[in-house]
Amino acid sequence: MNPLHWLISQCRRPRGLAGWLLARGMNRAHAPMTDWALSLISMQDSRTVLDIGCGGGGALLKLSELAPQAELHGIDYSPQSLGVAARTNRRLMEQGRVFLREADVSDLPYDDGRFDLIVAINSHYLWPDLEAGLGEIMRVLQPRGSVALAGGEYFGGKHDTRNRKLASNGRMNCQTLPELRDILSEAGYSGTVIHEEWNKGWFCVVGHKPVFDVEETAPPT
Ligand SMILES: C[S@@+](CC[C@H](N)C(=O)[O-])C[C@H]1O[C@@H](n2cnc3c(N)ncnc32)[C@H](O)[C@@H]1O
């Protein structure tokens, strides 16, 4: 495996000592983009927040300050990532504010309508089945709840050429931002807003679960 393939496969699912070190490094490397993305999301009313692909848990720690009233959950399917996330958030876990679980986004271990905000940072383009993940997120979101997908790997931005190389070498499922908005619409999300920090090469796309599903809004026959 060439070094780039190896690095992207570690980002996709950190493993072993290298995965542990990578998850720690991502907390530092992703902090500025995470700060920017979280600053765009309204969370004053959030009570239950889920971070999907929480990696080393840096976003959960930031969320604990931005939404001090919220119960915070993180899932990741890498035990190495979760080990670093547990260290990062040890005090908050002891206080019963942060909860971590090993799980795949395609099969979330939560009841329907459990969360009012779900974030996935530097993660969605690594999922094996984006549509299945968005369907599961829709299921565990409350009506009017929000989902935010954010990161630095997308097409059409300042780093388009780099990102296209990364995507083809590393089998990452990147999109342009209008394409990502359309994917969210097709998955049933409404009111999607695209944010882009062009100079840094960052995006944050926020969609919402509609209040009624199709069956409830259908006229009586
Ligand atoms: C590039 S890291 C980003 C971690 C963190 N969100 C950050 O921004 O620093 C991607 C993380 O998503 C996790 N991940 C990827 N696909 C996943 C899936 N299908 N289900 C759960 N976690 C997943 C990986 O294990 C990894 O920890």
- Beta percentage is 15-25%
Straight-line N-to-C gap: 59 Å
Count the E strands: 7
- CATH topology assignment: Rossmann fold
**What's the CATH superfamily, by name?**
Vaccinia Virus protein VP39
Characterization of the model:
By secondary structure, the protein is of the alpha/beta class. The protein has one domain: Vaccinia Virus protein VP39 (Rossmann fold, 3-Layer(aba) Sandwich), CATH 3.40.50. Helices cover 42% and strands 22% of the residues. The protein has 10 helices and 7 strands. β6 (190-197) and β7 (202-208) form a beta hairpin. The longest helix has 14 residues, at 16-29. It starts with a helix and ends with a helix. 43% of the residues are buried.
Topology, pairings included?
Elements: H1 3-12, H2 16-29, H3 31-39, E1 48-52, H4 58-66, E2 71-76, H5 79-88, H6 90-94, E3 98-102, E4 115-121, H7 130-140, E5 141-151, H8 160-170, H9 177-186, E6 190-197, E7 202-208, H10 214-217
Parallel strand pairs: 1-2, 1-4, 2-3, 4-5
Antiparallel strand pairs: 5-7, 6-7
Helix pairs in contact: 2-5, 3-4
The structure holds S-adenosylmethionine.
S-adenosylmethionine is lined by residues 11-14, 26, 30, 53-56, 58-59, 75-78, 81, 104-105, 121-123, 126-127.
